[in-house]
Design brief:
Strand content: 15-25%
Helix content: 40-55%
Number of domains: 1
Distance between the termini: 57 Å
Number of strands: 4
Order of helices and strands: EEHHEEHH
Number of helices: 4
CATH class: Mainly Alpha
Radius of gyration: 15 Å
Strand order of the largest sheet: 1-2-4-3
Length: 80
């Protein structure tokens, strides 16, 4: 019997438009734990929840960075 090697996709999933906390952490040069804490504190753009997965839109994270990283409330107001 052959052992099967599990091939994993890169975490920049969903056609490259949504990223997980690990990728957000890498983009921001932070730890994944810090990204999750900042999300809980409302300091990052609101993520998208798909089943049990949490993802952020890459384009939104980039725009948020270019806008000076405002807190979620101000970002959502500015965006609308």
């Amino acid at each position: 019997m052959r052992s099967q090697t599990k091939v994993t996709e890169p975490r920049v999933a969903l056609d490259g438009r949504a990223i997980d906390a690990k990728e957000v952490a890498r983009l921001l040069s932070l730890s994944e734990r810090t990204v999750r804490r900042l999300d809980q504190e409302g300091k990052l753009p609101r993520p998208v929840r798909i089943g049990g997965s949490v993802r952020w839109r890459l384009e939104e994270i980039q725009a948020w960075l270019h806008s000076g990283c405002p807190e979620r409330g101000r970002w959502e107001t500015r965006r609308n």
